[in-house]
Write a structure and sequence with these properties.
heterotrimer, B: alpha+beta, four-stranded mixed β-sheet, C: alpha/beta, six-stranded mixed β-barrel, about 20% strand, globular, binds iron/sulfur cluster, binds FE2/S2 (inorganic) cluster
Chain lengths: ~450, ~160, ~800
Amino acid sequence: MPEAPTFAAPTESSILLPFAGTRREIAEYEATGGYQSLRKAVGMTSEQLVDEMIASNLRGRGGAGFPAGRKASFLAPGEDRYLVINGDESEPGTFKDREIILRNPHMLIEGILIYLWMIKGAGAYIYIRGEYAKEAAILEGAIAQARAAGYIGQPLLGTDYVPNVYVHRGAGAYICGEETALLSSLNGERGQPTAKPPFPAVSGAFKKPTLLNNVETVATVPVIIGMGGAAYAGIGTEQSTGTKMFSLSGHVRNPGNYEMPLSATYRDLIDGKGGGLPEGRTLKAFVPGGSSMPILMPNQLDTGLAFEAVVAAGSMAGSGAVIVVDDRTCMVRFALRTAEFYKHESCGKCTPCREGTRWITELLRKLESGLGTTEEIDLLLNICDRVEGNCLCVLGDACAMPVRSHIRNFRDEIEEPVRLGRCPCPDDAPMADLYPPLLRAPLPLVHAG
Amino acid sequence: MADLYDKIQLEVAKYPNRRSAILPALRLAQEQYGWLSPEALESVAEALDLSPATCLAVASFYDMFFLQPVGDHVVEVCTNLSCALVGSDKVLSAFEEELGVPCGGTSADGKITLRSVECLGGCGWGPVVSVDHEYQEHFTTEDVAPLVAELRVAPRHTSESHA
Amino acid sequence: MSATVPGTETVTLQIDGREITVPKGTSLVVAAAEHAGVEIPVFCYEPRLGPPIGACRMCLVEIEGAPKLQAACTMSCGDGMVVKTAETSEQAKDAQDGVLEFMLLNHPLDCPVCDKGGECPLQDLTFRYGPGNSRMTLPKRTYEKPLPISSSIVLDRERCILCYRCTRFSGDVAEDGELVARERGATSVIATFDEQPYANAFSGNVTELCPVGALLPTAYRFKARPWEIVNVPTTCTGCATGCNTWATLREGKVERILSRNHPDVDEGWLCDKGRFARYEPRDERIAAPLHRGATGLEPAPWDEVLSTTAKRLRHLQATGDAGAIAIVTGGALTNEEAHAWRAIADALKARTASAPVAANAAWERLDAYAAPLAAIDRADVVVVIGDQEPTDRAGTIDLRIRKARRAGAHLAIVGPGGTSLEPDAGTFARTLPGAGASVVAALAAAAVAVGGERVRADAPTAGSVESLAAQAGAAEELLGLLAAARAAARRPGLFVTDPVATADLEALGWALGLDAGDGGIVPLPAGANERGERAVGLVGGWDEVLAGLEQGTVSGVILVGCDTVVESADGERWQMALAQTDVVISVAAFTNGVTSQSQVVLPLDVEHEREGTVMNLEGRVQRVRPSLPPISGVSMLEWTARFAGFLDVATPTTAAKAFSAIAASAPAFAGLSWSTLGERADLHRTRPAAERPAAPAPAAPPAAPPDGAFRLIAPRPLFSGAAVERTDTLAHQRAPYVVLAREDAERLGIGRGDEVRVRHAAGEHVGPARISRRLVPGAVRINWRGSAAGTSATVGAAG
Ligand SMILES: Cc1cc2nc3c(=O)[nH]c(=O)nc-3n(C[C@H](O)[C@H](O)[C@H](O)COP(=O)(O)O)c2cc1C
Ligand code: SF4
Ligand code: FES
């Protein structure tokens, strides 16, 4: 039988998960200083807490990298305000939030309680992707323990504020990671993004002012409150402070999650922690931050992990999912598989994304089958241009940006099938045969008169 | 069904408005009925005071809800990039062979439904196969036959609790 | 957050180089069109559907300082904004071409055979901006088409551009949630649940909202091309709301009814009765004067029939005492026609009756407390009292009530339950059926008890809140009632759908102090022009005439445009009474319950055949314009004039003349003139000062049904009447159903959808069961074609 995931060992710079194995029991967590930051926070005012977060200069770990403290300061005043934690984690290659929940759920709960206290929230909802059934159960367990220990559902540590925390499970839709789509889903609608304004900070969960952050972002809060924002800001680079979880996968010796200081480089991660590529293979390209980001080439290995460094290299740090691609991999199929995903996940609300992702996918499929033309490759680039920046949310961009980068960086290889009339790569190549995304129920006929 | 109605009311209690309970409600209905038949959707609609069409609109948006019957067990193979790079398509074809149905189909004995799914968030330990929502990692073609054999005799389990 | 509500402040911005100043908050799309003369193309943008959603992306514009193009529909004008539309921005132009191309990827481009052709925004834009042919070399999505989503609407999924207008109407305006988008991404389609018809009473509006040819009315398909048609502006006479409409005329036939948005009346919405119901086939209509001969009703020349009829009536009048003759109407006449009948009544010393129950129709007594429809938008609270859904009395009002609730008004429902407004109501106080009168009295008493800003502490009441609530069968709902009363004392829109004496409503209005401030009572007459008929002098109720017939004090009756056998709750009594009456004359569109008992039957002109005016429930006087000739070739104004002539009185033969006569004589029309009524009529409304009403009569509690029987709730549904019953495309709207309380259903072993038979005094009703958790146990609710309220019924599984 396949063995359970082998959690990565702590790195010398680990402050989020500075231990091996798991700490799911509240007793273990408290024995190692757990819930002390919460006690400290309860002695602080909302303003002090927000200032502490601003001082830490923590940037959101969900993908957009928006400064967490600033976001907290934007939250509109109001009677009922909510905290929503984004645990949808569906960007291909990303599995870091899952590791935090599996190994140290109480750290997330403590972060949630500090944030709830900060905004005197009417409640917190952890939106966790539906596939994470086990992880949801672990969170429910942690919440039950925290409740039994007096942290939840009763006046918090001698104050008159009563925090409440709920787990809300998704049901299989990548788009529900996008904040407004997540809130639509939480509000019981189809999980489609909504136009801003109104922003979640004004009208979000249940149409009330809502603070929304990623699991890792919130899990980092106890660390920051514990060590102090300034101290935290001392780690990493000036614009990208602290440590961050990176999910390493693909053609690498030691895949897994690694907590890296943001001052490190992709070489430190891939060659250092990951042990480089397997015997006899060489690096062809690597995805720096989830499949929606433009790929980087081997000569860019020394790019820093910091948000600004990746941008300078022409891509984005995104969710911190690093996918290593070796020399045998067919970039036509890689591009097709990438496009297929975004086509399958497009919510269907706005025209360019709904139709553009489909068109891009169909053209790549045609290309892969050897029936494509060079004109169609240029057409692909033009479609990418007309999708990017014109959609309601950035899912459309998430399809256009990588595909464009695949074509730009591997134009010759992409044109191979046109010349050969078939896809050139051998049957033992990775992704030898591709499968369509899961087949959905056939359309029922509507009432027939 | 009455008990489904009451279970759903417990979920409703977690939210400021009843409509937010639609995902948990649909999940409960699917656990009870096996799939979201029109009858199942109508029960959810009644419990939440929504139209059945609204429940259908929401259910059909998400990949984890079944709008047609499925087997007692659902095997889902991740075919997204990270798993594909380490050979998940071979695992998928091995399942197709073993079960004698193409991806998306249900074995003749009605026991097992095979699906390919997008990234499951186990990328470091791929190929990842989710069996009735329990992940099995580093899954190889050798693991296919034993798993199928095991599932053919295992009863359908209705709860997802993995605590 | 709607970007379309203009404030008072103004902002100055630049669009395509033109500097404009507009109210702060104006939508960029609107500002461009109305102030800068630049048309920004839109598909999904439709302010009446709620906040913009920015889905179609057709309206992308460049805004200086913004990192990427913005959807203009989701932007409101800001000070100093510099906007470049596709007219002046290359980037925006390219994006727009792109969006259009994306839309056309799957579109069949079948304009020549599409009924939308010629009036299709997509077609227009494709001509104006579109790249000639699509670069899409791959197969288009294909779907089974056309799909009927009900007997009145067909869906073509290939033409659909997924703008979500239709689903937003269903979800966010009508709030039925029956028409939805299913699936996701490129496979998304518009659908209903499990092949069931889209049965909302307002479903037809989606055919006007759809910007392409994807949703079309069945009745109109392949009928007309836009350039062959004439649109006549008129007013719907389906109910007393008086929605403004266009009648689309082609080759002497009314092919289609479209909304003619009057913001204060209908806001551009129509109900399916007003949109689809037709008095057809015309060859089944009563098209000539008939009199009963050896072989039954036979055609006869006008003058012969009119003169002999006049003679017989004169004779009756001479022999009997005053009021021996009764002229009975039911809101089906224009004010001008009613005016002629008033003159005839005078000539014959006849009594008149224009409403089912006289005591419930003294609408003018409520003028001091009445609220115009537009006031509902500003209501703090909307209270709906009685068994019936407001929709059944007055179609589109339902949409305004929901809109008010969405805008934050507290919705209080006081009734037996099982209606569509309850699920989202802030207060639902459950009563027995037929308890409207007790509830009104209880609310007045409750208001006095709890007090409030304008409440009159010394207002007369019919008893204690407790006793009145108990009478309404709502003893345990006391708190709900008090809450409703407290709320109603704010800025209410108050609907009373049960038969209730206007005197009692007056007492409630007085107690709540509704004569001061905004808001008040919204009267819901049963007949479309009941208020107008009454206002020109056709006062009185059917109940009085029926009593007269039964006591023999009335020996001749003229029933003009009303079928008292079907439409009144006392149908059988009318049947028997008419059988023994010497002279029965009826004016009808089709043979019906009263024509069969008449010696003389005269043709009734209906909507689209008449020139004149009607008065809606607010008292608003609006024009109706003919698109068709009178059914008999002679208009009612003309033949009533001739008839009057035989009685030696003169009545006007044209609507214009008749109207000036009315304006000169009837107070409710004072100051109005034919020429100034216009196409979008204002409400000439002066609130008379309120006078302290007499103490309301103690309301009679609803009678208990015999053992084992159910309390029947069968008010006349919206989808009933001669036209509805003859309109095939409304079949699904008429489809019978039976609502049972969960407890009763379980007791009787009846499940959702099981066929149930309901026997009641007026007949038998069989339909699938709907199970309600709110309907008061022991009651059954049906959509019976006629009016059978208040009676009891037996219920059992059918077959
Ligand atoms: C298509 C799309 C998918 C996203 N998926 C996720 C996700 O799975 N998890 C997440 O935390 N953020 C995701 N985001 C980013 C969220 O919109 C949001 O920026 C983030 O959750 C905010 O949290 P943070 O400020 O702590 O990073 C996604 C964004 C887009 C456009
Ligand atoms: S059917 Fe018409 S209104 Fe509905 S989504 Fe399609 S195009 Fe829009
Ligand atoms: S009109 Fe603006 S996006 Fe549709």
